[in-house]
């Protein structure tokens, strides 16, 4: 089993191109179906948000302006996707397979992005979306939470610049927890295609059973190099990203959510800093 159904949420931002490039590389590798889902905000929802301090006539004008802007963004995104699809010789439609065994489709949906993704992501093996950095979606936190918690699916966050290849090398951030193991299990198809896989255990806790993890990976045909890192006074996120740069990693695999499901706890600490910077593709699962 590979990653056969990939979902790519787009909003018309130019940074979606990086996520598309990464998603397509995965689709080529596993002969997947790639669904590009264009998310359009509901102008009525936005109008309700500002209605308390906006005159009715202004609210009506705002609805029209948001609707026109959303339609223009979706049109531009659709045109760019269609040009990309034609350039790669990919016919549209889930039953039509193009070059490299890849099929693609385009969908547009209007409404709250979190709700839309919650429903759509349930039927995807992997969701690829742009990261939560400077070019991230306005409601990126809600989108990420919807995929990971509401749909229970893994997500790959794209950086601002795509690596030359996603399959150069993976760095696994390991702390011995259920969340990390879940992320690793989801990432096994990707890890099996990597030129190099490294496991880095942070801290001095000897209960993480890193040797057992390496053996588990080996049973799946993944040869991993393991080492322990002691952050000292440095933030764990800084240590991880520095190690990723030193190794030339093209993918970071991590779990990281050991707290209750609240916005502050879920996206706090090390995970929050990693996904806010997104220097390289990051695969998350919960």
The gist of it:
By secondary structure, this protein is of the alpha/beta class. The chain has helices at 16-30, 43-50, 56-87, 113-121, 140-150, 178-191, 210-219, 236-247, 263-266, 269-277; strands spanning 5-10, 33-40, 103-110, 126-130, 155-158, 170-174, 197-202, 224-229, 251-254, 282-284.
Explained architecture:
- The protein is of the alpha/beta class.
- It folds into two domains: 5-158, HUPs (Rossmann fold, 3-Layer(aba) Sandwich); 170-284, 3-Layer(aba) Sandwich (Rossmann fold), CATH 3.40.50.620.
- Helix content is 43%, strand content 19%.
- The chain is built from ten helices and ten strands.
- It has helices at 16-30, 43-50, 56-87, 113-121, 140-150, 178-191, 210-219, 236-247, 263-266, 269-277, and strands at residues 5-10, 33-40, 103-110, 126-130, 155-158, 170-174, 197-202, 224-229, 251-254, 282-284.
- A ten-stranded mixed beta sheet has the order 3-2-1-4-5-10-9-6-7-8, sandwiched between helices.
- Helix 5 (140-150) links the parallel strand 4 (126-130) and strand 5.
- It starts with a strand and ends with a strand.
- Residues 259-268 have low confidence and may be disordered.
Structural topology:
Layout: E1 5-10, H1 16-30, E2 33-40, H2 43-50, H3 56-87, E3 103-110, H4 113-121, E4 126-130, H5 140-150, E5 155-158, E6 170-174, H6 178-191, E7 197-202, H7 210-219, E8 224-229, H8 236-247, E9 251-254, H9 263-266, H10 269-277, E10 282-284
Parallel strand pairs: 1-2, 1-4, 2-3, 4-5, 6-7, 6-9, 7-8, 9-10
Antiparallel strand pairs: 5-10
Helix pairs in contact: 2-3, 4-5, 8-10
């Amino acid at each position: 089993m590979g990653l056969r159904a990939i979902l790519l949420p787009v909003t018309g931002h130019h940074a979606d191109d990086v996520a598309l490039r990464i998603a397509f590389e995965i689709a080529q590798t596993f002969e997947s179906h790639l669904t590009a889902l264009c998310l359009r905000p509901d102008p009525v929802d936005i109008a309700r948000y500002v209605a308390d301090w906006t005159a009715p006539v202004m609210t009506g004008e705002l609805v029209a302006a948001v609707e026109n802007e959303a339609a223009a963004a979706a049109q531009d995104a659709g045109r760019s996707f269609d040009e990309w699809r034609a350039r790669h010789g990919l016919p549209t439609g889930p039953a039509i397979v193009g070059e490299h065994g890849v099929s693609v489709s385009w969908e547009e949906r209007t409404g709250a992005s979190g709700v839309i993704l919650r429903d759509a992501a349930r039927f995807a093996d992997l969701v690829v979306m742009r990261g939560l950095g400077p070019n991230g979606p306005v409601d990126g936190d809600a989108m990420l939470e919807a995929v990971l918690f509401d749909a229970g699916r893994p997500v790959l966050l794209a950086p601002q610049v795509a690596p030359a290849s996603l399959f150069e090398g993976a760095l696994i951030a390991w702390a011995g927890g259920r969340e990390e193991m879940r992320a690793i299990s989801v990432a096994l198809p990707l890890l099996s295609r990597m030129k190099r896989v490294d496991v880095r255990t942070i801290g001095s806790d000897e209960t993480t059973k890193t040797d057992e993890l390496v053996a588990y990976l080996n049973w799946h045909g993944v040869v991993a190099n393991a080492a322990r890192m002691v952050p000292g006074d440095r933030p764990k996120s800084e240590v991880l990203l520095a190690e990723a740069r030193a190794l030339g990693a093209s993918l970071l695999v991590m779990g990281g959510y050991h707290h209750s499901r609240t916005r502050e706890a879920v996206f706090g600490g090390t995970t929050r800093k990693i996904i806010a910077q997104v220097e390289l593709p990051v695969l998350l699962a919960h």
